[in-house]
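Researcher: Sequence recovery benchmark, item below. Answer with residues only.
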């Protein structure tokens, strides 16, 4: 007869606004059209991403999971006691759940852009850990990470930011630095960042991970057009585009694009129309890859010292623990 207290959900930190619709439209009207990767994650997109994580070709999730599983105690030993655990982009909180028993945090804050998905995730965490304070924050933290007030409620509990999965790769290196500096600004003296980054490896392995045989990644990429249709009242027809992924060695990133199969035009709401020529690309995602040294240099340039890191036997993925 445990009455479940609903987890606190902070939605004050904004849902799509006029401003963001403007940005989305602006990106689509550039000579090189682009859609920010954050638009992938509607309900269907979250589900497709969960499926991607289970694909044979998509090595990052299982490689990182193995690094965590094999080093959990060693990593935990480096973290402060009575911490506040902040999961950035928590999704279903599956990764966080695996840390709770060993860390026994004072509270868990899940941050995600997908609001309803977040609420059910936080409820699930609260059900499994009735003593734990669980807070969901609906926020596009890539644009405005500001958890200062929330963290200040517990001045005695140092924040540990958990940013797994190599989502940092979505940022271009300079933007990644700005974002890491914002995290650093939340850390205080005892705060930490536990972050996963995908590492440079042969092109064929990278490209297969973003263009799987079953077409799940293609469906994930094309689904962003349905999101844009709803967001802008646009009329993209996903079947007129095809999925394309390639590794750009010069920029050290996998790029995902949607390529127009034929010349056609798309309405982007009431007063705007964009023409796409045959083979014209819409850029939908960058996924930057680093060497171990490059990623530690990025952390250092962001004011974060990395004294410990862990990897797999092939050096395919890195987990880094950083502190101000
Ligand atoms: C969630 C950003 C880490 O870049 O690998 C997976 C997203 N895109 N397959 C990645 C993604 C295509 C993923 N991140």
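Model:
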């Amino acid at each position: 007869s445990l009455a479940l207290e609903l987890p606190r959900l902070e939605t004050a930190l904004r849902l799509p606004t006029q401003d963001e619709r403007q940005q989305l439209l602006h990106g689509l009207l550039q000579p090189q059209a682009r859609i920010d990767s954050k638009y992938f994650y509607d309900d269907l997109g979250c589900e497709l991403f969960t499926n991607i994580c289970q694909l044979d070709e998509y090595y990052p999730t299982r490689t990182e999971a193995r690094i965590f599983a094999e080093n959990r105690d060693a990593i935990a030993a480096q973290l402060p006691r009575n911490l506040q655990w902040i999961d950035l982009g928590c999704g279903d909180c599956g990764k966080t759940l695996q840390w709770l028993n060993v860390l026994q945090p004072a509270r868990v804050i899940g941050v995600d852009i997908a609001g309803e998905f977040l609420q059910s995730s936080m409820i699930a965490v609260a059900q499994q850990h009735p003593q734990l304070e669980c807070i969901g924050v609906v926020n596009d933290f890539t644009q405005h990470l500001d958890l200062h007030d929330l963290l200040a409620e517990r001045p005695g509990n140092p924040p540990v930011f958990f940013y797994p999965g190599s989502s940092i790769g979505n940022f271009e290196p300079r933007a990644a630095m700005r974002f890491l500096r914002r995290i650093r600004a939340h850390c205080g003296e005892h705060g930490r960042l536990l972050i996963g980054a995908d590492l440079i490896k042969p092109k064929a392995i990278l490209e297969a991970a973003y263009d799987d045989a079953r077409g799940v990644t293609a469906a994930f990429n094309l689904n962003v057009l349905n999101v844009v249709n709803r967001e802008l009242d646009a009329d993209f027809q996903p079947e007129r585009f095809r999925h394309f992924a390639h590794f750009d060695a010069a920029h050290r990133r996998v790029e995902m694009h949607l390529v127009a199969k034929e010349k056609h035009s798309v309405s982007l709401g009431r007063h705007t129309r964009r023409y796409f020529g045959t083979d014209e690309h819409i850029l939908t995602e960058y996924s930057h890859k680093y060497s171990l040294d490059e990623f530690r240099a990025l952390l250092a340039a962001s004011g974060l010292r990395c004294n410990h890191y862990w990897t797999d036997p092939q050096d395919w993925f890195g987990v880094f623990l950083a502190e101000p």
